[in-house]
Amino acid sequence: MKPHLTTAQLTEAELGEIRTLIEQRSAILLDSSRERFFSTRLREYLGEKHIESGTELLQIVRASVTEYDALLEQLLTQETSFFRYPAVYEALRKKILPEVQERKFWQDPRALRIWSAGCSTGEEPCSIAITLCDSLKFAEAWEIEILATDISRRALSHAERGIYAKRSLQDVSLGQVETHFSTTKHGYQVKPRIRKMISFVQMNLVEPAYFGKFDCIFCMNVLMYFSEKRRLAILRRFYDALEPGGYFLLGHSETLSNVSLNLESIRLGDCLIYRKPVSSEAPRMLAFVEELP
Questions:
Q1: pLDDT for position 188
Q2: For residue 51, is pLDDT > 80?
Q3: Among the options 34, 41, 84, 103, which is catalytic?
Q4: Which DSSP helix (H) or strand (E) runs through 69?
Q5: Are strands 143-150 and 198-202 parallel, antiparallel or unpaired?
Q6: pLDDT band at 219, cuts 50/70/90?
Q7: How far apart (Å, rounded) are the C-alpha atoms in residues 97 and 82?
Q8: Residue 116 and residue 156: Cα distance in Å, rounded?
Q9: In this structure, is the dihedral angle defined by the CA atoms of residues 266, 267, 268 and 270, taken in order, positive or negative?
């Protein structure tokens, strides 16, 4: 067996060729803003797999879908946590859910659908489900579905198990841990009431798919992995998937300031969210500030 390599060689040409291959196959753009991360992760992967060069790696991943998927897993950042952006869940609890309840209270069935796009290992959709359980009046009277999608099979496998280390729950209150998690020898497991709200599905956002209409779409720190053209196509698909009056939420560093979509932007404290007007409303593109109660 070859010794474990820690300083595998990669030329600029090889880096560029690997980057191009990934964009062609998965539409994921690892541009210059992530150059250091990209090259570091690649060298780690070469060392783990005992591959001596970028050229050898290219030969391997071109010949095997399994090997390509393994490389992609290495390059995808799965950094996430429960309630990662508290202001977002505050907006969900105090602004979005009350509006949905008022709009749909007399519907039969009374359905609530949320999409967590780029759900990683499941902390985000679980945080959404916990917020719904804690905040929604008569939650048991609602048909709740949280669609959680991600490109990574490995991340989705983790999410399906629903077991998390104690350190992952640092932003979950003690009361929420006691209510929504069971203690196991492997960590803290999401209870069935939360788990049954969530459907995990593997998908790449650039591939057209129809899942129906949603009251709210979370897409946090995902669009940065795509080219401007593909980002716009994804955003238009999200817009079409939103119910009239539905909400769209992005990561802290992302905005829709240069995107021509009929969404009104709403500033709620530290959180900027976007709302699709209902058909009877006049189109509005102006941002306004609202204080949460």
A1: 95
A2: yes
A3: 41
A4: helix 65-75
A5: parallel
A6: very high
A7: 19
A8: 12
A9: positive
Residue 38 tokens read as 């990209």
- Write out the residue range of the structural domain in which residue 51 sits: 12-75
Is 69 in the active site?
no
Q: What is the pLDDT of residue 8?
A: 66
Q: Of 19, 113, 150, 195, which one is the catalytic site residue?
A: 150
- pLDDT for 40 equals 87
| CB 143, CB 175: distance < 8 Å | no
Does residue 29 sit in helix, strand or coil? coil
Q: Do 90 and 175 share a domain, yes or no?
A: yes
Number of domains, the chain = 2
Q: Give the pLDDT score at 2.
A: 43
DSSP assignment of 219-230 equals E-S-GGGS-HHH
pLDDT at 189: 96
Q: Which residues contact 53 (CB under 8 A, 6 or more apart)?
A: 8, 9, 10, 14, 46
Q: Side chain identity at 216, as an amino acid letter? A: C
Annotated catalytic, 150? yes
Whether 282 maps to a domain, the answer reads yes
Same domain, 19 and 139: no
Burial 189-200 (b: 16+ CB within 10 A, else e): bbeeebbebbeb
Residues 238 and 127 in one domain: yes
Beta bridge partners of 115: 147, 217
Q: How far apart are CA 292 and CA 280, in angstroms?
A: 25
Q: Give mean pLDDT, residues 108-129.
A: 94
CATH code at 69?
1.10.155
**What is the tens place of the pLDDT at every residue in 158-183?**
999 999 998 889 999 999 999 999 99
- Across the chain, the runs of DSSP E, i.e. the strands, are 111-117, 143-150, 163-164, 181-184, 187-190, 198-202, 214-219, 242-250, 264-268, 271-275, 288-290
Q: 237 and 172 share a domain?
A: yes
Give the pLDDT of residue 31. 76
